[in-house]
Structure formats: C-alpha cells, structure tokens
Request: fold
Amino acid sequence: MSADSGLFDRLFIGGQWVEPHSGASIRTIDPSTEEVWAEVAVADEVDIDRAVAAARAAVDGRWGRGTAPSARGALLARLADLVRRDARLLAEIESRDNGKPLRDTLGEVQRSADWLTFFAGAADKLNGDQIPYRTDALAYTRLEPVGVVAAILPWNSPISLASWKLGPALAAGNAIILKPAEQTPASMVALARLAEEAGFPEGVVNVLPGDGAVGAALAAHGGVDKISFTGSHETAQRIMQSASVNLKRCAFECGGKSPFIVFADADIERALSVAVHSAFRSTGQSCSMASRIFVQRPAYDAFAAALAERAASIRVGPPFDPRTHIGPQTSAEQRDKTETYIGLGRECGARLLVGGGRPAGFPRGYYVEPTVFADADNRSRLAQEEIFGPVTAVMPFEDEEEAIALANDSRYGLVGGLWTSDVGRAHRVAARIEAGLVSVNTFRPVHFMLPYGGYKMSGVGRENGFQAVREFTETKTVVVDLATEMPADPFGD
Reply:
C-alpha cells in the first residue's frame, strides 16, 4: 500500500471501493500546520443502507455460516501481519491527521497488530457451557454472533481503538462497519485497504467516513445489531436513545477524570515520573489521563513543585520532529476548549504553576502548553469535567478516607491509581475506588489481556481480554430431552 493521491476518494462497502452516493468529501486538516492535507470521501444514508445490507449478507452467508472459527482467526492474524508491515505508513497518516508525534502513533499501530493477533487466537476458543439441568436431558449454551456491528471511533487513537472493536467482533463471527471521526478519517480508509488485501469475504469489513450524522444514522438503523462507541458520554446518551428503535446492543467507553493518588510513603520519584507521562502524553487527549492528582499533605508541596518543573521541560512541537514529546491538539475546536478550561481554572482560584498559554515559536498549529494547577477545588469544573488537553490539577489530602472520598467524587469511573508502600493500604484503597481499572504503583496498564471499561458515566461494557469477544455474542440455550417415557398428560385424571 502506498500513500497515493487516490487513497481516500472511495468508500469501502461490500468488499468494493465505491464512489460515495452524494459525491461529498471531508477536508482533513494537519493540526500542526492548519492546512488541508487530504480529502476523504464521506457516506450518506444511501451508503449506510448499502453497507448494512452487505454486512448482513456476510453474517447470514459465507462469513457467518461458511467460515470456520479457525479460518476467521487466520484472517485476523493475516491482517495483523499487514498492519505490522505497513506500520510506518499508517502511523504517518495518523500523525498527519491527529497531530500526535510519529513515535507515539508508530507505537500505537504496532500495538494494534498485537491486539489483532490476540483476538485471532481467541476466534476458535469461544465455547458455550454444558449445564447439568436434568439427568435425562442435555442442556448447553451456544455463543453466536450478534450480527451487524457498527463501531463509531474517536479521533485521538483511530487505529488503536479500531483494533479493540474490530478484533473481537470479527473473532466472534460478526461483520463490522467502521465509522471514523470526521477529524481523523484517513487512517481507517488505509486500514480497509489492508483488510481487503488480507482476504476477508465481501461485507465483513466496511468503512464509512462521515460526520455525526453518519453515526446517528447507524445508531438508529434497524439493520444494525450492536453499536460499539468510544467518545463523550453526551454522544453515548444520544446513541442509546436512537438504539432503542430495535433494542440494539450498546457498548460505550465514555471518558474519565482519573484520580492519581500519591501517599506520603510511596516511591515519590517513581510516582512523579509516571505522573508526568500519564498527565500529558497524547497532548492530554486520552480518556484515562492523570487529570486529578491527589498527594498526601506531607509530600504535597514538593511533589507539586517537581511536577511543574518537569512539565515545563516537556518539548511541544510538530509530530514529525523526533525531538517532540507532545504535538498539537487535534483541532482548533479542541484547542479552544482546553484554553477555556485553563481560564476556568484561573477563575476558580486554583494556583497556576506552569503553562496556561500557547508555546512560543508556533504561529500556526493547535498548540497548548503543558499546564499544571495546584490547590484546585475538587468540585470545580476544572477538576470535574473532562478537558481532553494537557492540563492537570494537583490537590492535597490528609488521610486514606479523604483520598477515597475525593477520588470517588466524580461522575466518571474509568481509571484510578494509587501509590503506596503499604500493601494493606494498597488492597483497601483499590477495593474502594469506583473505577473499571485500578492500578497500584503504576498507572493505566492497558493490555489486550486486561478487560477495560468504566463505572458510572465512563461507559457500559468492557473491551479487551477474552471477555471482549463474549461482548459480541448472543447466548443461546439448547435443551434436548433424553427421556424415554411419555410425558404425563397434564389434563388427565
């Protein structure tokens, strides 16, 4: 695959590259230069109907009934190999689209291949259960595909998060429609080229770039059996309402405001190093950032000062400069949102330790300085609302009970972490943090083997791990009566 000019001018539907019904396209902007670098074809409702029909035909035909689980796994493994082969090109496309440093996108793409490999191995290990229901009956469950899956993707890590959805969905025997975010559609079109090369049957993988209207139409479409969505909880709420048209399954990963708790007895140097990375990687554009850092009072002042000093040393720059630590925000809209929250931080009385503006030397591009606030109120908008920018707030606490109360005082519950040398405290606090992933003396250990998802407004369902494959199945119970005697007549004397 090469990055030729015609790479993005078609939709991938039913195994074919087709012109969009409307002839429309999206202009995708390089966030480091604010210049248009590609135009990507976009779908409308006619294209959606075609994709749903193609996916349904695949599930009901050659893919669903005619492909053995081991063969599905082999195709996924082939796709993983192709992603590894073209990792550099895919990473360059993604960096051009979302502004992340190339070394970050390259790592993400390479790890996406590992995700696909894991799910390839899961395809032929999806078993039901035998149930000892009666001695004269055989009862068992079958795990069958949900059917047509629409995966609505965010703009921060398109290929990575596509692998989280595409891998388990196809391993379970479903067909999928990938809808990338309108800000970052290009890499998903490139991924479709590799799915075609891998040899998936027609209709198994479909790609429909477009704006929110495309996602809304997929959510409301009666031919879609499941929506898997990563993005804001407000959008997830609208999807859930639309999905009621046919009670389609919904899985949501909707962001967070993650607590990073440092007790005074922790390895402070290690906690500091991880805090800097966890607060600012991806320019803060991740749902699991260390965006609320709670430090026990004896260590608070020194920790906050050291965090600010290290944040000031982070190099902001264009994604293809190897010296860059973090790039620009993905869009002008997101940069403006981040700057609004920085203003709110100032207004609420939090103490600005470092950052708070745009870095010097970049007359163009959606750049924001790494920003650290101290002494924030945990009930302020700065500490309660997801910013999705390079901004973190450091707040003190006195004891274990207060740390838990502050951590849980949030509508989100995706990721949490704590740092301590006390083993008993580690288990006590981990058990009480309201989050789908809790780490001790590390932060956000995301891996294809570890289930990932949130409590409260952070989402519904789990991604990753073998549990993710089951999320894309229906459970059918089968009971075979083995009795040789005639059943009693319920109306007899």
In short: DSSP finds 15 helices and 22 strands in the chain. The first strand starts at residue 11 and ends at 13.
